[in-house]
């Protein structure tokens, strides 16, 4: 009889996760080119559509580049100035005991226009310095190649990932950084939350859709190009880097039927299939049959080239990583209250609490998600984003008492432990935003996730001073005990 696993495995990778466009700043220094993220404005809550402020039109980009947007702030250009504070920040991560740190490389630091012939040495040198600093403390870099920032030139010249030629530019970029950092980085992710290209094509792939006859078809075509690019990058990594591990990354939003009504059950199943389609392709190496009906119903035809199917089949990922913040509920006949979410929302689940931003908090949904993934793929799993965006208050003595964040994380880590006991192979956990950063979906600073407080406000004011929250010492204790001490 097999003995049940008890607790987290030895060598479990505890840490935190960020993205270049949300922390680095220095958007125009040392040869860096503009990206799609640099065009995202700060829009107050009352003026936002669909709860986020992400999609940008060609007309808006033209106006920004022509200098007609002088009174608008672009917070992702500023970040929290990790570019100049990385040593201080990494020292704090090391103090917490991080085993790994997930970060992304800004493609436009390496190839400012995306299609340049030669890489930018200053950009390569910056990441050399960051990786060296991490390794000095024994922290393994976990690096995302593309995290919601496409070089702006690729959007203006090719319409981003809608154009197949971008595959070649991406693989050149991937090969460049694989060769440069082959002795420093052994864990890589290709595209962050790759499924978001079907929800926000501009965010996920630098694709402008306002002139498209079939926006959904354009989005899925761009997604196909990313699938091929991801497979080719995986192939390159395996050829260049000894003992490398390459993963895909999905924004997993497990969807429950709102009731036992078979219509709700079928709708939830369909939504889950559309979400898991992206990992099905990258982990199983082929388009699943259930998408044939979806494509037919939405007049979508995917243009493939000879050899694409073979590329996808031969170069699948080594592990599956994903973000998990909440679950969703679906109703075929929605009525009453709705709930917000990470790019998507649903009907309100009466059994769950909600965050300051209306996201439903569902720790047991993480256990469900882990078991569902592992049953489906039987590949190692890695939770690379999970956290609570909340308003934090600094007390008169400079303290930040964030018991609500500790409570959120404790309940999710408990369910991770349960999933491991269920038999799930879980590699690690990197909480989202170990240090306060610019929100991806709203460009706010006030939506804080970190164990480390950064003195900066939504209007850009502040000293950028770093301060420890109560959760800092709590997470340090969690890591030191390998998840055994959650009190």
UniProtKB/TrEMBL annotation:
The active site is at 385 (nucleophile). InterPro entries: GH, GH_1_N_CS, Glyco_hydro_1, Glyco_hydro_1_AS. It holds the Pfam family Glyco_hydro_1. Transmembrane segments: none annotated. It comes from the Bacteria. Keywords: Glycosidase, Hydrolase. NCBIfam families: PRK09593.1, PRK09852.1. Belongs to the glycosyl hydrolase 1 family. This is 6-phospho-beta-glucosidase.
């Amino acid at each position: 009889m097999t003995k049940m696993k008890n607790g987290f495995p030895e060598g479990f990778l505890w840490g935190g996760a960020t993205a270049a466009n949300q922390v680095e700043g220095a958007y125009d220094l040392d040869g860096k080119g503009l990206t799609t993220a640099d065009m995202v404005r700060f829009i107050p809550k009352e003026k936002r559509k669909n709860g986020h402020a992400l999609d940008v039109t060609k007309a808006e980009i033209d106006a920004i580049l022509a200098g007609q947007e002088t009174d608008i702030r672009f917070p992702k250009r500023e970040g929290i100035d990790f570019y100049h504070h990385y040593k201080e920040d990494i020292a704090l991560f090391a103090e917490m005991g991080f085993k790994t740190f997930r970060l992304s490389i800004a493609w436009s630091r390496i190839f400012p226009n995306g299609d340049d012939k030669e890489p930018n040495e200053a950009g390569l040198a910056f990441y050399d310095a960051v990786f060296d600093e991490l390794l000095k403390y024994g922290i393994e870099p976990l690096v995302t190649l593309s995290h919601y920032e496409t070089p702006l030139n690729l959007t203006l010249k090719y319409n981003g990932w809608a154009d197949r030629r971008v595959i070649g530019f991406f693989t050149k970029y991937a090969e460049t950084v694989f060769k440069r950092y082959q002795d420093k980085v052994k864990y890589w992710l290709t595209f962050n939350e790759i499924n978001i290209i079907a929800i926000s094509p501009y965010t996920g792939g630098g694709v402008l859709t306002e002139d498209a006859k079939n926006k959904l078809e354009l989005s899925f075509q761009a997604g196909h190009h990313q699938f091929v690019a991801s497979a080719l990058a995986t192939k390159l990594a395996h050829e260049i880097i000894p003992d490398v591990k390459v993963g895909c990354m999905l924004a997993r939003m497990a969807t429950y039927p709102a009731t036992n009504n078979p219509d709700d059950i079928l709708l939830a199943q369909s939504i889950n299939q559309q979400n898991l389609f992206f990992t099905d392709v990258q982990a199983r190496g082929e388009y699943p049959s259930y998408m044939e009906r979806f494509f037919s119903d939405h007049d979508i035809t995917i243009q493939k080239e000879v050899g694409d199917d073979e590329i996808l089949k031969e170069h699948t990922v080594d592990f599956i990583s994903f973000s998990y913040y909440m679950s969703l509920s679906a109703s075929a006949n929605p009525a009453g209250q709705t709930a917000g979410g990470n790019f998507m929302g649903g009907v309100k689940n009466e059994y769950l609490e909600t965050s300051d931003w209306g996201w439903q908090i569902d720790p047991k949904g993480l256990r469900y998600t882990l078991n569902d993934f592992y049953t489906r793929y039987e590949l190692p799993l890695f939770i690379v984003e999970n956290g609570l965006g909340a308003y934090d208050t600094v007390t008169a003595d400079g303290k930040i008492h964030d018991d609500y964040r500790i409570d959120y994380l404790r309940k999710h880590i408990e369910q991770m432990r349960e999933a491991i006991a269920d038999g799930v192979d879980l590699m690690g956990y990197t909480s989202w935003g170990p240090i306060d950063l610019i929100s991806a979906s709203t460009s706010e600073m006030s939506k804080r996730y970190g164990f480390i407080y950064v003195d900066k406000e939504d209007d850009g004011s502040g000293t950028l001073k770093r301060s420890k929250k109560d959760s800092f010492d709590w997470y340090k204790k969690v890591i030191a005990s390998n998840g055994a001490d959650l009190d």
